[in-house]
Write a structure and sequence with these properties.
This protein is mainly α. The chain is built from 4 helices and 2 strands, in the order αβααβα. It binds calcium ion (2 copies). Residues 47-82 form the EF-hand domain.
Length: 98
Amino acid sequence: MLCSCLSQALAVLVCTFQRYSKQEGDRFTLSRGELKELLEKELPSLGDEGAFEELLSILDANKDGEVDFQEYIRFVAVACTLCHEFFVDSPVVLPRGQ
Ligand SMILES: [Ca+2]
Ligand SMILES: [Ca+2]
């Protein structure tokens, strides 16, 4: 089945969360370790240990020590906004389907 880029991107966003969130503890939330692994493997450009601590404190809006799906999606929205601002003056280059 041929899917649009956007629906594929949405599936990747959701599946990436689920792949890491089910590894330990509550399978619907990212523990500290799960979040760290997700960021290291999926977003290695995001930075060092200090950046991780800061990011965790921002992401964990309700301060329960875990990042739930709502908190993750808020992060994705912020990341998308940054991408939007970054690419806004660039020529449009869409990723090609494989
Ligand atoms: Ca978990
Ligand atoms: Ca939380």
